[in-house]
Design brief:
2 copies of one chain form a homodimer. Chain A is an alpha+beta fold. Helices cover about 30% and strands about 35% of the residues of chain A. Chain A contains 8 helices and 10 strands. In chain A, strands 4-5-6-9-8-7 form a 6-stranded antiparallel sheet, with helices on both faces. Chain A has a two-stranded antiparallel sheet with strand order 1-2. In chain A, helix 1 packs across helix 3 (about 55-65) and helix 2 crosses helix 3. In chain A, about 35% of the residues are buried. At the A-B interface, strand 3, helix 4, helix 7, strand 7 and strand 8 of A face strand 3, helix 4, helix 7, strand 7 and strand 8 of B. The structure holds a DNA duplex.
DNA sequence: AAGTGGTCTAGACCACTAT
DNA sequence: TAGTGGTCTAGACCACTTT
């Protein structure tokens, strides 16, 4: 029989008690002391064992719950969650890396003109067919190589020259780096696989596989009006999105 | 001049005070009272204004922070975040919907056999080239239509018959629905676009576009050993992943 | 020094679930 | 009814940034 040595909270440690307790519990879960589906000790029990207050235990549990490690049920208890594929989330953070401080990334404006909305665009931007929009086509280069291709239709403000309005609404750098000063409130994104057209493949200098990731976007302003609809088309070999599911081991 | 009427917290309301306060602040942000980049009132200020305790205000701020609406900086204040593309996350929840209660989804086992690891698979599963693995190929049907195609290599347990071990390790339903009883601790996922091979296209009954979303996975057990490597290949027209960025308006 | 966010406590009360 | 999670408080102390 192995004697269970209870890890304790160190008040002088860098990590606050609620983080320490979360680490302790997560370790016990990983070790199999609390397998998936099992109930972990109740909050009052944890208070007693680790000499912390109820609120501190609750923060610990909230943390583990946010991390997808446990699920709580009022009146029943807190249970260890198994790995769930559905909890997987692909972060666009990878895209952000494109805009590192090193300035190796450049945006090339390929086209900017007034275009009349066709049926689809009119529907997306809540316009009438034939209404005036601004069409913009941009290419994102890294070390001279094309990695991303962006095509969008903006609601045109007739009082503004085209170039200015595009810079303000959706400067690519601003969008990704998100320094905060855009007029956009929110966006809806969809990811799918597309077959590159010949012209697009040429732009991206793709020769082998014509499959590419496409991120369709619809951005809204603070009045909930759609202001931009378009697509990012990513070179398959240059951009991949990663994620993890289950318990992260930091 | 418009008189600013201060919304108040209703103690008898269904939503607890910290949620109510979060809604109030989020509304003010959406209305432009606190534009992106602006500092919102300090925590002690909010305590006074809304007659709630410090801890309650902190939960409100934590909630907004989790939602990506604000950013906090110790000693400086809490600031409204602008919309950031990089915060976008594509949830696999959509996949989960495939396994609704209605039982219209079926999994068809196409192949299950012993296979020797080639160089790539050996590397992924930390085996030697030529080591024994179990190869499994499955098709997921919805209302009789193929939507998803799964191909994986498992570390083979020689003491178990093939079919049993596959059911235990990665039953598709278990993976997505995540009822909890798998032996998997975590997984690494990558999403990319692929060009379907002819045989795959035939399996998925795809005729028009050969582009498809591919989710590559590597699952680990609780001893951090890789146990399964493979790919989900999704029919483009049947599975799309969506997300939103910026402020959600529920 | 004053103001800001970050953490902890001890105790209170509530809502829900099991028995 | 007892046990569980969920919320709130009032006050204390700390770490950090600005003035």
């Amino acid at each position: 029989m192995k004697i269970e040595t209870l890890q304790t909270i160190n008040r002088d440690f860098m990590d606050p008690p609620y983080v320490q307790l979360a680490n302790i519990l997560r370790n016990q879960i990983v070790k199999g002391i609390f397998p998936p589906g099992a109930r972990i000790p109740s909050e009052s029990e944890l208070c007693k064992r680790y000499h912390v207050s109820h609120m501190t235990v609750r923060r610990t549990i909230k943390l583990l719950s946010d991390q997808g490690v446990v699920d709580t049920f009022q009146g029943r208890g807190t249970f260890v969650k198994g790995m769930q594929l559905k909890s997987g989330t692909f972060k666009l953070r990878e895209l952000d890396d494109l805009f590192g401080e090193d300035g190796k990334t450049k945006v090339k404006l390929l086209e900017a003109r007034v275009a009349k909305a066709d049926k689809i665009i009119a529907q997306k931007l809540r316009l009438k067919k034939g209404d005036r929009t601004i069409f913009i086509k941009r290419l994102l280069l890294q070390n001279g190589d094309p990695v991303l291709y962006h095509k969008e239709y903006l609601i045109g403000d007739p009082t503004q020259p085209i170039v200015e309005s595009e810079m303000e609404v959706t400067s690519l750098h601003g969008l990704f780096a998100g320094n905060g000063e855009s007029n956009l409130k929110r966006g809806e994104l969809t990811i799918e696989a597309v077959q590159l057209e010949e012209s697009e493949a040429a732009l991206l200098k793709v020769t082998d596989s014509l499959a590419a990731l496409c991120i369709e976007h619809l951005f809204f302003d603070f009045e909930e009006r759609p202001v931009s609809w378009g697509r990012f088309i990513c070179r398959n070999d240059r951009l991949k999105f990663k994620t993890t599911v289950g318990i992260e081991t930091r």
